[in-house]
Structures are given as structure tokens and as C-alpha cells.
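# step 3/5: fold
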Amino acid sequence: MGAPCSLTTSTLTRRSFARRALGLAVFSAGARSLAAQGTQAQTPLFAYVGTYSGSPGAGQANGRGIHVFRVDRASGALTPMGVTDHDTSPSALVFDASGTRLYSTDASASVEGGSSGTVSAFAVDPATGRLTRLNTVPSGGLGPTYARLHPSGRHLLVANYGGGSVAVLPVLPDGRLGPATDVKKTTGPLGPKAAASAPPGSFAISGHDAPHAHQIVPDPTGRFVLAPDLGLDRIFVWAFDAATGTLSPAAEPSVAVPPGDGPRHLAFHPNGRWLYSIQEEGSTIVRFDYDGVVGKLTPRQTVPTLPAGYAGSNFTSGIAVSPDGRFLYGANRLHDSLAIFAIGDEGGLTWVSEEWTRGDYPRSFTIAPGGDFLYCCNQRADHVTTFRVDRQTGRLTFTGQYTPVGSPSALAFPGIVGS
């Protein structure tokens, strides 16, 4: 017999085999990650900015319609690609889940004998960002200020500020909009002109002359629809019939906020159990527990959106929860800041910081896909400012990027809901 075969350095022991297997797994995962990043890098990301080009009811209107920008995913920079729909005032923009349909409210339009504004549907070219109008329909009331798609994707919900109403518009199979299937007026006693909780010396008086539905949002299940009415100091809740596209009052049809505070916008936490309402005149945020079985709101906490010691006038605007549910942001107009809060285990808010918007009168703001950037629409400064988001602390860092846009009102990304 020959000498026994000797083991060389290429022999696999259980330990070396495990090391090699781990190395292959890491390499494979890395390759998949790089491939995913490459695919993402090759897929263009566009941002759409609505502007006031007709009278928005307050302030100047220097806009031209809907601006389209290409987004640099690494730096957050916006590169202009064109303008669509001149001479309209898109106060709100909302995409469908596929990102191939865009819906826009026109705050300055007047149709049906002056009793209604309009909403338009657009087809989106994913490769170029170009918009093609599909159709335009009445919004169900004057001054449409906000829209949101129902989770089913088959209904567009619209809040008409001037008309004090909310409407349901069916979304047809090709993405066009049909005539309203339901319109509901928000009714009740008006709130006082001034908010007791406003900062000392505040002259923040806006919309308590009539009912003013300022926003409309479905709950995460789609079973209920909620709308804050600034003039009535109440948040209305309706049960939603997805089969007929109609609304009926919930068991508890509305809940009050402090008199004069003027609820403007709402934001659900990703868990669906907590709702946050920002008050325009009171400069506060109210946290509610939300019972999605019956659509009931229970107030739990009220916090100011302004730093301690601030005195003078302020109007809040947008509100948003970070995609991971850890932080909440609220915008202050006149103070011109973004308030940052940490969200606790029970939904409570703790002040983190504030960040100057680098502009004037932030009408709204939007967190970008992935949560790494925040864009602020500074209506009276005629620009959009870009901030990098620290996802560990929630703090914002200005990137130095000012994007000129006349009277920006709203910014939206395909697949991302704006504020």
C-alpha cells in the first residue's frame, strides 16, 4: 500500500467550512444589496410641487401650476424638468399606489355657477415624470384644499375649505375621476375668533367665520374617514361605505379641540392607534387614542408647537410622522420653523428641537421616500428648502439647497402621501 494521503491547507474542517459558508452568505447578501441599490439608482425619482397661481385666499400667488423635479437620491437636490397645468392653484397633490396617476385640487377654480372648485386627474410617465391630463371634475364645494385616496384606491376624498364640505369622487378603472358619489357639509356652532392657548400677544385669527373643512384622511383600515374643521373647532368622523362611496356619521360624529384652536391637519401613527392633530391658531398638537372599531377619538395630550418663551402671532400648517413612527414634525408659519418631537411607547410627545425653515411661511412639508430628506414649501419666500433627516435623533440639518418655486403649496412623491 502506498503512504496514506496527507491533509493539506485546502482540507475543510467544520470550522473552516462554516467560515467559508458565512463568507459566501455575506458576499451573496452584499451582491443582492448592490444590485438593489443599482436598480434604485437607475430608477428616476421625481418630485411634484403644486403652486398658487390664482388667488389662494391669503398671501401672494406667484406660481405657475405643477412643477416637476428630478431628485438626486444621494444629495436630495431637485433639478427642474418642466411645468404642467399653467394658471391653476394645485393646493394638494396625491398619487395612487402605482405612482402612475396624480390627482390635484385647484383652490382657485370656480365651476357650477361658482359653487364648486375642481379636481384633476393626470397620467404620469414613470420614465420622464411628464404629466398628461386625463380629466377635471367638480370638487363638491368651493376652495378644495386637500385630497387623499381611500386605501382601496377606488375613491378620492376631498376637503373643500371654502364650501365647508367633504366629498367622495370615484376613481374609474383608467384613473379618471367620476362625479361625486357623496358630499357632506360640516355643521355646528362656530368657534371663537381667538384661541386661548395661542402665544401671548398673538393676533392669529383666521377661519372662524364659517365652517372650513381643512383636510380629510381615511383611517388605516379604510372603515372610517376623518376631517378637521378649522371654523368649528371639531374633528368629524364618518363611517365609509366602500361599495357605494358614501359617508355616514360615526357613533360619535365629532370630537372638539380647545375653543378657537382651529384644527388644521391630522396624521396617523403607523400603528393606526394614535392620531395627532395640529391646531392652526392655538399652535398646539393634540394626541388622541384612536379606536378603529367604532372610529372613536379620545384626547390624551396637548403640547405647544413653539419653544418656551415665544410671544407673538403664529399659524401652524403641516404635520407628519416619520416613516418609522419614532418622530413627529409640525410646521409653524410666522415663527417659520419645524417643531420636532419624539414619540414614546404610548404615543406621547416629547420636545426634541426646532429647525428654522430658511424661508417664509412654510405652507407644507414632505418627508421623502426612505425618510432621509425633508422638503419644506416656503410659500412667501418662493422656494423649497431641503433638509437631511437624522433618523436616529429626528433632528434636521439644512443641506444648503434652495429650489426656486413661486408660491409653493404642496410637494408630493409617487407613492408617498404629503402633509
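# step 4/5: annotate
The first strand starts at residue 46 and ends at 51.
# step 5/5: archive (pending)
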